[in-house]
């Protein structure tokens, strides 16, 4: 292996830059020529590829977003698009790939590898922490802390006005952000896609709190909860409890994706980036690098996409006990 | 004057606690007995009043929200309600009041003073900075910094994906938060209630940026803009520009109200609190304390409510020049 | 078991309050009467003990420091002192203890348990992460993030002035904070007590960076490094390299202990607090609760104190590779 | 005027980049060719000068430090050095200069202007706020907030352990940072170079607090206080009070210079940058742009350097009243 290219794809996540830095410097350290592909699969097709040296990744470990940019590519979903991508890579002499991203990224990588066999190792970069094969994904810890800061701020208002706040956080299929920011923020209730929390139970809990003279309550809702989005849920509950509770809603939205990465994400991203490039050098292919129980492991792309990642049931139980 | 009571009313704002601390300690320093009324006018009616000493306000200068809580009181809008409030105050021997809040708070205070003549001095506590009689209100600087942090985070994603973001910030009648966070965040466009920004102009600016190879753009929208809320504006623009621009929307919402106050707000709150209590001792009444050109001034409640507070036109001009 | 008392001891650490909250609410949830001992062993002797209910621990999950305060107690090191402590506990009917703290705390708990057999479970609360029996201690993640924020700020100046900065972080016997904040902050060199980094090597690395046109460099030094404190090390190096490098030093100091806890520390503290009280109920005694590989484990106090906690050698290797 | 060059000099300050952006875009907006000089007077001599366009200053409004770097130049203090600088500027056709910096920067600019008459306008960029001719300097608000965050963290520990903390902040000749962060942080005492606070008084205040059952105290010391540096002062006081008070010291150091600028500093920097370039175009020369009472004013360099900037005596009085 001589020339390896790296790209980011899918939604950006804090720590992607720290990961890029680790891959590039790790590759150079081991004697490889390193290249960056701009805008993921789209740049792979259009040939937006540039040589990277140690200085190209200076002073980025602390930055949010991705210096290699990210974009969707419909064209890469077609055999013709992938053929173009392959031709471009060949014209640059690329003989190895590092892909940073999530589900969609690895689905593409899996298909591409099966067709053209360019050795590829992935790094899990997504705030949702919904990938099998790693305890945590790059960006998750930062997203949780960002959500938590927002919850801390909202609690000031909730307490000052004796209000109930429904706060929606990211997580279409996964309640990880909701649970962790809920526990961290001292939420009374956390609603996640993985388990069903009936509205009746939410109402009972809120009313009970009221009786125990709780002056305010926080309900954290993952965007993918089966009872609907936070505004919808709040509306339903308002209808049932009337004026007794002063209910407000806020949706955190895009702020959860950005920001400089936390220490945890910088270190995780560095370990995974270095692990991925060294894995690639040592013959790993068609796999994602992950950290499980503090060890570096490689999991086939197909498993990272298809296998379910169970939620921590004991954390949900904890929400209940700690909010009494 | 012997016994002075303090209360907070209206939406909570960061720095209210620093202001309470300055009022209480300033009063005690000058030999007064100090009382806190819980939940504003509502607590004034129900008699939720407590003695405060120096220790009651320890370790709160850095906290968001208000330890005296805030609430709406319909009853205080009626003569009967105000009579009850007056009776309660008399029964506690209160002969002076400090009111921290915004428009609604001072409207109530004005009416109450005209009826019962209890000397009252106000402190401007609202994130909107929409009160005549002070350059800045308590909470404004913190709200701007909170919005700015959010914009900084969103810019990471905007840059990574070459997107246009419409970000809605607070300000029903006032564009102060929008303008300051827009300039601070390097926004391409700022839309405020005070001046009309036609959608045509917004589109032209965004397209021009595109031609000059700006990879992403930020538009900050005050919630009270005459073109509508951010999601609405974004929808209209999407219809006109089609797929050329990848447009996203986010509404910052309640996070802007909370959080520990900035240095600026803590100092402003401390100066206004101390100024208000010393003003009250010196015979000021029915006025709001403010800082204009770095000097303490007192403005009749009626003027703070009715007189318009002009926006900085030169700051809007600056947005335009600095986004080229 | 009916009455359990909790106390914090040793240096304060962010997350101690979240842990107190989890212990108290967990105990109440399981039907126990919960008590708080103020100022650790010192309050145990003087009888500064108070009943705690659910509301006593409201709104503290996000606060730094410890609401139960901490203090050194020389008296507890004597048999007479411990006798007094025992008598006080008996007079309150306390039949179980939860101790939050570090090395010194558990040494005291071990001795006390051997003498009086009151079942005691510990929670690891120290920013240094130097306790065997848990992957991470409460407060460590926050301390690393605080150090990292400081390093990020100093790098601005280092880059602007092409300087070399020596930054001293906490860690008398342990390089954990230094290594993690060094990797996260993109440091060129990390010096820790566990391994010896000769000054010659430091100089070579700095000079090499200079040749590769690195405009600035960061060296993170743990306070317990065998080459001395950061100012000392910097002085020695200045003598050898002369004016070629513009060297500055900063010691982060006490800011590393304080601040609201990160999400990670709040969740860790909550898990350990709940785990400790449930462990105590289930018969655990004379042990510390810890999380190893994401599982709750109990380790005898004697092991937590005496067994060495190895540093991550692979992280040190990473510093070297990533700084090229 | 056709070609204007901008440079930063002296210690870096947060907001310098926002100022560079405003100068460059303002100049381009008004039809000028804009140039950046790297490393201040040193780069002016060596000819490290580059053309700047709108994109050169993209995405820097939020960054600490200075992208144009800063350095000391002994050579510029000599007539020969300044001759070289002049020749370099002439060879690039530069006919106007914008200098961002503090005292030393403007002293150099004053001498240079008197010798060679290249129209020069300055922008006050220094965290110390020690320049006459502007209410606040670029970087001051950020430095105060950074100090305040540190004080907030240290208070957690001070409270948890009932300690007295002496915290040294920057300010060799000026107590501005000390006073504002002291008030904001709820300090019991603030010691500044402008007024003398006898140690006897410090001791009395600390002891009084103790009697009023204050559990902890914060003393903020400006580095230029006439009683010495914080460690020295603490040592003297320890000798006099003995073990009664548990006294600790921390010196904030270089973290105060760095970090992304606050909203206030970004807006101030933008206003001053645009004001400076438009002033230069309109014929201003040998002056510094400042904001006094919210208006843009120009003050001769010689006055900004020589005239004293008085401290807010009323703020010092406030520290005393608010710490009771």
TrEMBL record, chains A, B, C, D:
<keyword id="KW-0021">Allosteric enzyme</keyword>
<dbReference type="GO" id="GO:0070095">
    <property type="term" value="F:fructose-6-phosphate binding"/>
</dbReference>
<feature type="binding site" description="in other chain">
    <location>
        <begin position="214"/>
        <end position="216"/>
    </location>
    <ligand>
        <name>ADP</name>
    </ligand>
</feature>
<comment type="subunit">
    <text>Homotetramer.</text>
</comment>
<feature type="binding site">
    <location>
        <position position="11"/>
    </location>
    <ligand>
        <name>ATP</name>
    </ligand>
</feature>
<comment type="similarity">
    <text>Belongs to the phosphofructokinase type A (PFKA) family. ATP-dependent PFK group I subfamily. Prokaryotic clade 'B1' sub-subfamily.</text>
</comment>
<feature type="binding site" description="in other chain">
    <location>
        <begin position="186"/>
        <end position="188"/>
    </location>
    <ligand>
        <name>ADP</name>
    </ligand>
</feature>
<dbReference type="InterPro" id="IPR015912">
    <property type="entry name" value="Phosphofructokinase_CS"/>
</dbReference>
<feature type="binding site">
    <location>
        <position position="248"/>
    </location>
    <ligand>
        <name>substrate</name>
    </ligand>
</feature>
<feature type="binding site" description="in other chain">
    <location>
        <position position="212"/>
    </location>
    <ligand>
        <name>ADP</name>
    </ligand>
</feature>
<dbReference type="GO" id="GO:0061621">
    <property type="term" value="P:canonical glycolysis"/>
</dbReference>
<feature type="binding site">
    <location>
        <begin position="21"/>
        <end position="25"/>
    </location>
    <ligand>
        <name>ADP</name>
    </ligand>
</feature>
<feature type="binding site" description="in other chain">
    <location>
        <begin position="254"/>
        <end position="257"/>
    </location>
    <ligand>
        <name>substrate</name>
    </ligand>
</feature>
<feature type="binding site">
    <location>
        <begin position="102"/>
        <end position="105"/>
    </location>
    <ligand>
        <name>ATP</name>
    </ligand>
</feature>
<keyword id="KW-0418">Kinase</keyword>
<dbReference type="GO" id="GO:0016208">
    <property type="term" value="F:AMP binding"/>
</dbReference>
<dbReference type="GO" id="GO:0048029">
    <property type="term" value="F:monosaccharide binding"/>
</dbReference>
<keyword id="KW-0479">Metal-binding</keyword>
<keyword id="KW-0547">Nucleotide-binding</keyword>
<keyword id="KW-0963">Cytoplasm</keyword>
<keyword id="KW-0067">ATP-binding</keyword>
<keyword id="KW-0460">Magnesium</keyword>
<comment type="function">
    <text>Catalyzes the phosphorylation of D-fructose 6-phosphate to fructose 1,6-bisphosphate by ATP, the first committing step of glycolysis.</text>
</comment>
<dbReference type="GO" id="GO:0005945">
    <property type="term" value="C:6-phosphofructokinase complex"/>
</dbReference>
<dbReference type="GO" id="GO:0030388">
    <property type="term" value="P:fructose 1,6-bisphosphate metabolic process"/>
</dbReference>
<dbReference type="GO" id="GO:0042802">
    <property type="term" value="F:identical protein binding"/>
</dbReference>
<feature type="binding site">
    <location>
        <begin position="72"/>
        <end position="73"/>
    </location>
    <ligand>
        <name>ATP</name>
    </ligand>
</feature>
<dbReference type="GO" id="GO:0006002">
    <property type="term" value="P:fructose 6-phosphate metabolic process"/>
</dbReference>
<feature type="domain" description="Phosphofructokinase">
    <location>
        <begin position="3"/>
        <end position="279"/>
    </location>
</feature>
<keyword id="KW-0808">Transferase</keyword>
<dbReference type="Pfam" id="PF00365">
    <property type="entry name" value="PFK"/>
</dbReference>
<comment type="pathway">
    <text>Carbohydrate degradation; glycolysis; D-glyceraldehyde 3-phosphate and glycerone phosphate from D-glucose: step 3/4.</text>
</comment>
<feature type="binding site" description="in other chain">
    <location>
        <position position="155"/>
    </location>
    <ligand>
        <name>ADP</name>
    </ligand>
</feature>
<feature type="binding site">
    <location>
        <position position="103"/>
    </location>
    <ligand>
        <name>Mg(2+)</name>
    </ligand>
</feature>
<dbReference type="InterPro" id="IPR022953">
    <property type="entry name" value="ATP_PFK"/>
</dbReference>
<dbReference type="InterPro" id="IPR012828">
    <property type="entry name" value="PFKA_ATP_prok"/>
</dbReference>
<dbReference type="InterPro" id="IPR012003">
    <property type="entry name" value="ATP_PFK_prok-type"/>
</dbReference>
<feature type="active site" description="Proton acceptor">
    <location>
        <position position="128"/>
    </location>
</feature>
<dbReference type="GO" id="GO:0005524">
    <property type="term" value="F:ATP binding"/>
</dbReference>
<dbReference type="InterPro" id="IPR035966">
    <property type="entry name" value="PKF_sf"/>
</dbReference>
<dbReference type="GO" id="GO:0003872">
    <property type="term" value="F:6-phosphofructokinase activity"/>
</dbReference>
<feature type="binding site" description="in other chain">
    <location>
        <begin position="170"/>
        <end position="172"/>
    </location>
    <ligand>
        <name>substrate</name>
    </ligand>
</feature>
């Amino acid at each position: 292996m001589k020339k390896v290219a790296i790209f980011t794809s899918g939604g950006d996540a804090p720590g992607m830059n720290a990961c890029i830095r680790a891959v590039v410097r790790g590759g150079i350290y081991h004697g490889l020529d390193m290249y960056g592909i701009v805008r993921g699969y789209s740049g792979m097709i259009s040939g937006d590829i540039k040589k990277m040296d140690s200085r190209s990744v200076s002073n980025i470990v602390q930055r949010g977003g991705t210096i290699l940019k990210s974009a969707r590519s419909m064209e890469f979903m077609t055999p013709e698009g992938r053929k173009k991508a392959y031709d471009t890579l060949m014209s640059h002499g690329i003989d190895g790939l590092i892909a940073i991203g999530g589900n969609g990224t690895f689905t593409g990588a899996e298909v591409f590898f099966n067709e053209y066999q360019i050795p590829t190792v992935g790094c899990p970069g997504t705030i949702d922490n919904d990938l099998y094969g790693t305890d945590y994904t790059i960006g998750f810890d930062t997203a949780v802390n960002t959500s938590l800061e927002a919850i801390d701020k909202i609690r000031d208002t909730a307490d000052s006005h004796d209000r109930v706040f429904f706060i929606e956080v990211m997580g279409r299929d996964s309640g990880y952000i909701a649970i962790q920011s809920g526990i961290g923020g001292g939420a009374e209730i956390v609603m996640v896609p993985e388990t069903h929390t009936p509205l009746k139970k939410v109402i009972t809990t809120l009313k009970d709190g009221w009786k125990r003279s709780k002056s305010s309550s926080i309900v954290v809702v993952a965007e993918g909860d089966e009872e609907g989005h936070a505004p919808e849920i709040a509306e339903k509950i308002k209808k049932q409890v009337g004026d007794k509770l002063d209910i407000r809603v806020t949706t955190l939205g895009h702020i959860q994706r950005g920001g400089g990465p936390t220490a945890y994400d910088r270190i995780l991203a560095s370990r995974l980036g270095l692990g991925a490039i060294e894995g690639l050098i040592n013959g790993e292919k068609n796999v994602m690098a992950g950290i499980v129980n503090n060890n570096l492991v490689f999991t086939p792309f197909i498993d990272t996409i298809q296998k379910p990642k169970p939620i921590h049931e004991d954390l949900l139980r904890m929400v209940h006990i700690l909010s009494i």
